Amino acid sequence: QVQLVESGGGLVQPGGSLRLSCAASGFTFSIYAMSWYRQAPGKERELVAAIISGGGRTNYADSVKGRFPISRDNAKNTVYLEMNSLKPKGTAVYYCKAAAPFGGRRYWGRGTQVTVSS
Fold it and tell me: Whole-angstrom Cα distance, residue 83 to residue 54?
């Protein structure tokens, strides 16, 4: 049974930091590209950051470059998103996605709420 379980969300003040984690099980994590998306109220889901299977290459939305490093630990089947200098527009549900190579299967987590407010 495939599972992606996000954690680490919560309420944080502007300028603060949070670390999101996504624990994976039920598939061969090490060969999947992993990414984080977010969806704010009334808006479409958007890509935040992505990392390839080996972790050697990453990709970021312009709005988070330099602030939200993505990383993975293949030994722990976990992907992380370190969110720094958070802004109110960062308020959203953050989702973890796994993508198999060569256009294969996609899996989504259920999301974790991040609220940036004073």
Answer: 21
Residue 78: count of CB within 10 angstroms of its CB: 18
- Contacts of residue 69, defined as CB under 8 A and 6 or more positions apart, other chains included, come to 49, 58, 81, 82
DSSP E strands in the chain: the ranges are: 3-7, 10-12, 18-25, 33-39, 46-51, 58-60, 70-73, 78-83, 92-99, 106-108, 112-116
The dihedral built from the CA positions of residue 25, 27, 30 and 34, taken in this order, carries a sign that is: negative
Q: What is the largest CA-CA distance in the chain?
A: 44
Beta strand 10-12 with 112-116 is parallel
| Structure confidence by residue, pLDDT tens digits, 9-33 | 999 999 999 999 999 999 999 999 9
